[in-house]
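Re-running Protein VACUOLELESS GAMETOPHYTES to confirm reproducibility after the cluster update. Everything else is unchanged from the original entry.
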Amino acid sequence: MDKKEGTRAPPPPPPPRLTSHPRLTLPLRKNQSERMKKRVTLLESFRPYQDHDYKNPRCHLSHPTHPHTLSECGDISKFGSCFSCGERILPSKKNIGDLYYCTTCDVEFHHGCHRFPRKLTHPYHLQHPLTFTYRNYETGIMSEDNVDEYFCTTVLSNSNHDKSRSIESDIVFDKCAWCDKNIQGDCFYRCSICNFCLDISCSQNIPLLLVEKPKSHHHPLIFYPRPLLTPCDACGLVNVLDPSYACFQCNYMVHQSCMDLPRVIKITRHQHRLFHTPYIQSTSSPCRICYKPADIKYGHYSCNHGDCSYVVHSKCATHENIWDGDELEWEPEEPENTEDIFPFKKVGSDLIDHFSHKHLLKLEKYDGIRDAEKQCQACILPINSRDFYNCIQCEFFLHEVCAGLLRKLDHALHKHPLVLLPYPETDYSLNGCLVCCRESSGFRYKCSKENCVLGNKAQIDVRCVLVPDYFTHKAHEHPIFISTSSKGENKTWCKGCKETCKGSYLQCTLCKFALCYQCVTIPTEVYYKHDKHPLSLCYGEVPEDMYWCEICEKQLDPRDWFYTCNKCCITIHRHCIFGSSVYMKPGLPLFYKGCTRQLKVLRNSKSTRPVCTQCGQRCPSSVYYSYRLYRLGSKSIFCSLNCFELLTRNTGNLSLNFFIFS
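Result of re-run:
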C-alpha cells in the first residue's frame, strides 16, 4: 500500500548498547592478571605523540566536539567486558583504578585498552567512525578485530613480525590517509564507508578541535583537518605528520608542535638570550645551527642585542640536542662572572699559577732534543709547539693553548654548561668522551647539571672542545658544521676513517661530506722519531704507485688518510702513528674493569719494538702493556687493551689491578 502524502515515516529504533560482541567476550583464563599487567605496560608505553587527555582520558567513541570523559570504575562487580579487548575481570580490590567507564556510551575499558577501542571517532575523519581492523597479508582479507596479545606483542613492542613489510595489493587500504605512508603491521583503523584509514601511530594523535588561548597567536586557533602542505608560519617547515591549526582571520597556519614555542630561550651556541619573532625585518645571515638560508617570512629565534645578528630556525633552536628545555621569559638574566672561569693568574712576565697544579708554570720555548718525550697534561699529545708551560719543580707540561682553557664554558656539543676537570677518574671506563668515544687520561669537560639525562657520560675531551663550530677543513672544499643528529639516529659515513660515525660528527653545508671527531681532532702535522722532518697528514690521493708503511711494513692504501714526508719519501698509517693508547699518559693509577693486580704501561721508545703476545704483531703505539700471567709463566706484552682483554678472558684471569708506569 502506498503511503499517503504528508505522513512521516516512523522514527528509527534507538541504537543498541555498545557492548562487546559475543565473539569478542573471551572467557577467563589462568594468569589473566599477569597477562593484563604486561598488556597495560605495552599499551601505556606506546605514546608516539603528545597525549592531551592523559590525566582526564576521553572516551574515543564520543565525538570530539562533545567529548565524554572516562571515569574510574569503582564498583568492580558491575564491570562486564572491555570494549577493546573483550576480556572480563574478576571482582577484586586490586583492579580498582585500572578500569574506566563511560556513563554516556555505557562501555567499559581496561586501563591502557581505552586508547585502542574497537570503534573510534577521530578528528582526522569526523564524518564517520573508524573501526579497528586486522588484515591478513597472505589472503588479503580484512576483518574487524580487537586488542589482544598479538597486537601488543607485535605492534606495540616494536617486534619485527611483519612490521617492516608493506605489501602492495589491490586493496585500497595500503596507505595511511594522513601521513601517506605505507601501513606498517597488520592492524590499523579504517572507515567502512569511504576510503579512509589511519595507521596505529597516527590514530594515537588526538588534537583539540579548538585552542581558545594559544601562546603563539592573539586569536583562537581552529584545527585544520587536512595535512598542511604549505610551510608553517612559526617554523617555516612542511610536516604533514604534525596536525595544524589555522586562524582564517589572519591567514595564519601553524603546526600543533609550534603553537607553544617558548618566547625566550638560551642555548649554549650563543652568549646572549634568543627571542622568538614571527618574522625578521631583513637578514643576510643563515641559520647559525644548520647554516641553511633563513626565510624572513617565517618565525625565527634571534638575538636582540644591537650589534648581534645571530639568527636560528625555530626547529633548530628548540632541537632536543640544542635547547635545555628551560623557558626564560620571566626569568631575570644572571650577570656574567668572568673571575671564576679563567684558569690561571699571572705571577710574573712568564710565570702563571694554574688551577690544575700546585706549582708555578713557566713559559718556555720548544726544543726538539730536550722536549722530545714531553706530553701535555691536558690533551696528552706530545709537546711540539713553539711555546709551552713547564713546571719549575716537577714533570708537568701544558701547551699554551691548553693552559688557556676556561674552567667553565658553553659549548655547541652539549646543551648544558660544562666545567673543566683537570684529573682523570680512577675508573678507566669513566674517562670516555661523549663526542669521539675515546678514553683519555687528560683534561675533560663535564656537564655541570646534576640531573642531566646523560649522567656520567656527559663529558667531552678537550681536543673535541677546541674544534670550531663552523670552519673549512683541509680535506673538503666546503665549510662543515656540527650536526644536530643524535647518536644512532642515522648512519652517517665518515669520509676520513671510512666508518660509521659513532658519536657526534661534522657535516658539509652543501653536500653529504661528513667527518667524525676522531678524524677531525688528529693533528695535521706530527713528529716521527726516525725522521728529522715533520710528517704531514695526507687526505688521500689517486693511487699511482704502491705505498708501504714505515712502522708495520704493510701495504698502505693511498686513498685513505696517511702521514707522509715528501722529502724522505716516508709513508705511515695513521693508526700506526697513534695506536690505540695514544691518549693514555704513563704514570697515573687507574682501575681497569675491576682489575686487582698490577699492569704496567711502558713507553715504546726503544729501537726494537716488542711483539704482542696475543696478536703476534709488533707494538706500533707510543706505549705498550706488560703483565705477568702465572699460567704462561713469564711476562706478557700487549700492544693494546683489546689484546690484553682477549688473552686474560681466555685464561680466566680478568680480575687484575691496573697501574700505569713510565
